[in-house]
Structures are given as C-alpha cells and as structure tokens.
Design brief:
Helix content: 10-25%
Radius of gyration: 17 Å
Structural class: alpha+beta
Distance between the termini: 24 Å
CATH class: Alpha Beta
Number of helices: 3
Strand content: 35-45%
Number of domains: 1
Largest sheet: 6 strands, mixed
Shape: globular
Strand order of the largest sheet: 2-1-6-5-4-3
CATH architecture: Roll
Length: 183
C-alpha cells in the first residue's frame, strides 16, 4: 500500500487560525470526555461515514532500517477499522458477554500538544496531538497508553467529523490483557 498523503507531516504546513484551532481542540476534548464517560453513541456521531481508524504495531528497529512501519497497511495493526468495524466492536458491549467490561473499566484520556493545519482537501484539517490514556479495572488492573495521533477532521455543519486517525503507540510491546479502549 502507498502512503496516505493526508496523514504525512509536510515540511511546511499552513497553520489554522486561532479560532479554528480552538474549535478543533474543543472537539478533541469533547471526544475524550465521551470516551471517558463511555458515551459511545455520542462518540460514533463524531465519526465520518468514511472513517479509517488505524493503529499499527511498531517494532523496535535500528535507525538504518528505513522500513515504513506506520503507513504500510499490510503490516500488523491493533486497529485497522472503518466505521462499520468500530460499531461492531462497540456492539459487543451490549451483548453482556464482554467479560473484560464487567465490571466496567474506568478511563481517563488526556489530550495535549494539539496542532491544526490545513489539509490538501478543502474543509478538512490535519490535527496532530499527543495522548495519555489511563484505564483501571477491578482492584489492581491498571494500564497506561501513551502516544501520538495524526487525524483528519472534516467540517460537518456546526461540528467536525473524524475522517482518519493514525495512532502511534510509544510501546513496542502492548502489555495490556485486552485492547478495549479507543484512543
């Protein structure tokens, strides 16, 4: 597969206005709150019909190895989903058979270092951010996930819809027992 030019970091990007940056920052904070509160219906309403949600597995490599681990879609990925697949993952929670969610997991998403740039497509914006996600289940199960995201958000009337998300974990080995979290 080829690299997706909308997710690549340009050498020089044209930054968005403070007003637009603030609006998209608020959208990211709202998204984090919805995920923390498990308001998945609200979160899904923020997702575009043509969503691509991707989190590749990253291997530890020597610097001389220039293999593209991030954009090669043939490689292993924790998430490589469209909107239908995201909804299918969420529908499991309603079945009563999602053992890893009974009792419920407690989440906190912290989003920071938000940058907004214009993308090549009018009405769409490239949004860079860092995240820290904490989750706690039962008495002693704790996980933290830390990484970067590159998103494409599209204007949708008075709101924005997430079109693409590329998540880069800073862990080369995921120690969590499951991956029942969206980042």
């Amino acid at each position: 597969m080829t690299k997706d030019a909308t997710l690549e970091r340009p050498q020089t990007g044209r930054s968005a206005s403070l007003e637009l940056t603030h609006a998209l920052t608020q959208a990211l904070y709202r998204e984090a709150r919805m995920l923390d509160e498990e308001n998945y219906d609200g979160w899904v309403n923020m997702l575009a019909e043509d969503l691509f949600y991707h989190m590749p597995g990253i291997e530890t490599r020597y610097r001389r190895d220039k293999t593209d681990q991030v954009n090669d879609l043939r490689r292993m990925a924790y998430y490589n989903d469209n909107l239908t697949e995201i909804k299918k993952r969420l529908s499991r929670l309603e079945t009563g058979t999602a053992w890893s969610e009974d009792p419920a997991t407690r989440y906190t998403h912290i989003i920071t270092n938000i940058e907004v740039e214009f993308s090549p497509t009018p009405g769409e914006y490239r949004v860079f951010s860092n995240f820290y996600a904490y989750r706690n289940r039962n008495e002693r199960e704790e996980d933290t996930l830390i990484g970067n995201r590159v998103d494409i958000w599209r204007e949708a009337g008075e709101a924005f819809h997430l079109v693409k998300r590329q998540i880069i974990l800073k862990h080369n080995v995921l120690l969590s027992k499951n991956l029942n979290i969206f980042l």
